[in-house]
Write a structure and sequence with these properties.
This protein is globular. Helix 4 packs across helix 10 and helix 12 packs across helix 14. About 2% of the residues have low confidence. The chain has 438 residues and is of the alpha/beta class. It is built from 21 helices and 13 strands.
Length: 438
């Protein structure tokens, strides 16, 4: 088979896979192989395909067993899930149960679940890195993991009630376990604080999350997300980037940090970028596009997916971004007067020209350099209200362009009114929809 025939053959195979919507299946099987590394991959894949469950798998972990089990049973009754409770499985055991036995009992219980149940919800598992890794190597990937944390004083009282001498050790162990679960399940993990949230609220939140994720598997493709915000107002946008990058394991690309990195590298682009930033000028499109392109082509971005903040800012950048096939555009916007008011409240570093929404009180040198935007008007008469309004209107015009070009992939939220939880839930709906990856 020559090169031309090989290319044609690959195209036919890809077309067949897409036509029959098999992409997710192949990616999930590959993922299971990487996690499990079986001695006989072919036998392993046959076994997975023959025994593939239609049931959803959810884990709920956290130290307060009675509280956790009450919530789990409420959720299970609502959705007709089978409950597997670690406390019930090991009810007759005295003392600490080692990981090996714990893992085996949980695995046996999951495999023994009758087919009529719509899902399985496991309470009290996994509790640490060993257990989290074991269950994945068995080809069982949870759709969601919920962790119930509790304020230290309350959990201390709980442990003192039955094991006073080991309380401190238990507290340290719980904190380490939570971090390990966060590390393994970061993109599928939701943490609820039982001290600050009522039981009913937690149940309602979990109900909403389960309803939104009415799919057999968590997202298998690598999401590509843009968080776009008004000029200078980066606080809320960067908070969303941090949250979503952790939730989905994405590479975080903060445009300003990319520019700073280029300046620090002391290459040919550094002085050009620094001059543009210092004089409030637009950075040439070919420069910023090439920097962003380098980031999205990195190994981490290609293997995990990416989320960009502070880009695009104009039509040229929008046209370039279109080629990167983003799946979701989260846009923060407000009425012109609200944005105008917020912009004039910014603090600006007289030396670097960096804008701040919140004053960094721990940096004395920086505090001495900050001035209000209104003061900058007096220092530079060429900057006025009309310039600010023009920036805002240009931004809102770009939003219309994005909506026209990318349709329902563009989701616009109010900068001040829309809750972060609401934005994240809508992002979840999009990123859990296999159609957006076609």
């Amino acid at each position: 088979m020559n090169q031309k025939e090989l290319v044609e053959y690959q195209k036919k195979v890809e077309a067949y896979i897409q036509e029959h919507k098999m992409t997710d299946i192949f990616e999930n099987l590959t993922r299971l192989l990487v996690l499990s590394r079986p001695e006989n991959p072919l036998t392993f894949l046959i076994d997975v395909l023959e025994n593939r469950r239609v049931q959803r798998l959810i884990f709920v972990s956290g130290p307060l067993a009675n509280y956790r089990n009450e919530v789990v049973h409420s959720i299970a009754n609502l959705f007709y899930y089978r409950v597997i409770s670690a406390e019930e499985l090991f009810q007759g055991d005295v003392g600490w149960v080692d990981n090996s036995r714990f893992n085996q009992k949980i695995l046996e219980a999951i495999k023994a679940t009758e087919r009529q149940f719509r899902g399985i919800i496991v309470s009290g598992y996994p509790n640490n890195l060993n257990q989290a890794r074991f269950i994945q190597t068995q080809g069982l990937l949870p759709e969601r993991v919920f962790f119930f944390e509790t304020d230290k004083l309350e959990i201390k009282q709980y442990y003192n009630s039955f094991q006073a001498q080991e309380t401190e050790q238990s507290l340290i162990r719980d904190e380490l376990n939570r971090r390990e679960l966060d590390q393994i399940f970061s993109q599928y993990l939701d943490i609820f604080n039982t001290s600050t949230q009522t039981k009913d609220d937690i149940i309602e939140n979990i109900k909403s999350i389960i309803k939104l994720r009415d799919r057999k598997y968590p997202p298998l493709r690598f999401p590509r997300v843009c968080v776009i915000r008004p000029p200078g107002l980066k606080e809320r946008a960067q908070g969303l980037v941090e949250l979503l990058s952790k939730r989905y394991g994405l590479k975080s690309i903060i445009t300003f940090q990319v520019l700073e990195k280029a300046i620090q590298n002391k290459g040919a682009l550094g002085p050009l970028i620094q001059d543009a930033l210092m004089n409030q000028k637009t950075i040439p499109a070919d420069i910023i596009n090439s920097l962003i392109y380098t980031e999205v082509l990195s190994t981490e971005a290609r293997t995990k997916g990416w989320i960009i903040e502070g880009y695009p800012k104009n039509e040229e950048q929008v046209n370039f971004l279109e080629q990167q096939n983003a799946n979701l555009y989260i846009i923060l916007n407000e009425e012109e007067e609200i944005l105008f008011s917020k912009y004039k409240q910014l603090k600006i570093d007289k030396v670097t020209k960096v804008k701040y929404e919140k004053v960094p009180i721990n940096n004395k040198q920086l505090l001495e350099r900050l001035v209000n935007y209104q003061v900058l008007f007096k220092l530079k008469p060429q900057i006025n209200d009309d310039d600010l309004r023009l920036k805002i209107r240009s931004y809102q015009q770009m939003i219309k362009q994005l909506e026209k070009k990318f349709g329902e992939s563009v989701q616009v939220f109010k900068l001040e009114k829309d809750l972060t939880d609401n934005i994240v839930r809508i992002a979840d709906v999009f990123l859990n929809n296999p159609k957006i990856y076609n």
